[in-house]
C-alpha cells in the first residue's frame, strides 16, 4: 500500500495538515495558530488521547446509569430526543 | 462518511443530525440494549468495558469498510484474545517514522504512508468526536430521568 509511486507534494501535505487543524476544537486551535506541522501533530495526538479518555469515562457513566434506568419507556424517549436535535 | 472532498474545507458550524449520525445513534443504542440484556447487573466495570467496545464498534461499522482505521478497529475487536495494546510494528522506510506518536493513536496507523495517515486521522477524529457527542447526549438524557 505504501510507496504507491505517486509523488506527494508539499502542498498536499500542507493542505491535509491545515485540515487537521480545522478539526481541532477552538481552544486547541488557539495553541497552534500558525504553528509548525510538528506542533500541530502533537496537538492532534493530545486531542485524540483526550477523546479516547472521554469515550472511556462516558462508557463508565453509561454503565452506572444503566443500572438505574427503567425498561422501555425512557429509552424510547431518549431516542426521540436524539432524533429531535 | 464523505471523504475525498477538498482538504481545506472549513468545519460545519451547524452539525445537523445527518444520515451518518442517525446510523451511529441507532447502532450504538441497539448495542447498548444488548449490553444491558446480556451483562449481569452486578458487574458495573465489565458492563463499562462492553459499552466502550460497543462505542468503537458502532463507530467503525458506521464509517464502513472504506476506511483503514475502521477496518483496524474491527480486526482488533474481533481478535480480542490478544490483549496487547500495541503489537510490534514493522515500519518500512517508505512509510517512515514520521508522526510516530500519531501512528500509535490512529488504528491501523502503522502501515500507512504519511499522506494516508493524515487523511485517516482527520476521518478518525470526526467519527470519534461524533461518538463522544452521541454518548454525552445519551448521558444527559438519561440523567434527567431520575427518581
From TrEMBL, chain A:
It comes from the Eukaryota. One of its GO terms (molecular function) is protein dimerization activity. It holds the Pfam family bHLH_ILI. InterPro entries: bHLH_dom, HLH_DNA-bd_sf, PRE. Keywords: Growth regulation, Transcription, Transcription regulation. Residues 1-51 form the BHLH domain. One of its GO terms (biological process) is regulation of DNA-templated transcription. Belongs to the bHLH protein family. This is BHLH domain-containing protein. It comes from Musa troglodytarum.
From TrEMBL, chain B:
One of its GO terms (biological process) is regulation of DNA-templated transcription. InterPro entries: bHLH_AtIBH1-like, bHLH_dom, HLH_DNA-bd_sf, IBH1-like. Transmembrane segments: none annotated. Residues 79-128 form the BHLH domain. It comes from Musa troglodytarum (fe'i banana). Belongs to the bHLH protein family. One of its GO terms (cellular component) is nucleus. Keywords: Nucleus, Transcription, Transcription regulation. It is found in: Nucleus. This is BHLH domain-containing protein. Signal peptide: none annotated. Its main location: nucleus. One of its GO terms (molecular function) is transcription cis-regulatory region binding.
